[in-house]
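By convention, each integer encodes one residue's backbone shape. The lines below illustrate.
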Amino acid sequence: MKKFILVFVFLAVCTPAFAFHIGPATPAADHGEVNFGVGYFLYQAEWDGFDVEQNRGYVHLGYGLGIEDEPRWEAYIRGGAANLETADENFDADFEPFGMIGIKGAFHDGEHFGWGMALQGGIFGDFEDNGGMVEDLWEIEAGFPFQMGAGPFVLYAGPVFYRMKSERIEEEDNFGGFAGLAITLGPLSLELEGQLKSDISAGGNLTVQF
């Protein structure tokens, strides 16, 4: 367990980050449990006056941290592929691989109310089309979800602070918001979320813990 945490901290310090859905404060992974699943995120943004869009598909692998009877935390990695295109279709790059890491958890996890924090992200391969190229694309973000739950349902929302940049361009603004719904049925967890940054994005994932 200690080795796992040390490796994760090393990666978190040395790896830049890219945004996906944030989720509720309470993670799907229970203490000492593995959480595995798949996800999709439609990312839309405004980069220095250009409207861009990405389709991102990925797998999720997480591990539940913390002490029994205390709020849960989860360290996770995600990997998959994403494309990149502009609204005017002057740039339309094929899918490239990406990887990301994250950590999230609850500072307070009451019977019906809770709140916490998420730090997450990844880095992408270079996108190229029509002689143009987007290189060294990265983002780092911190979200602060506030949640309200009843039975298997959890509604959550909160602010998010971020910075996204490549070698030549960057996303406008550094502050946004997010909201979503999480449904947990036994070991299965479904999370659906919308975000408002420089534009509207949405996605979610389906995971199972064991």
Q: What stands out?
A: The domain at 2-209 is CATH 2.40.128 (Lipocalin).
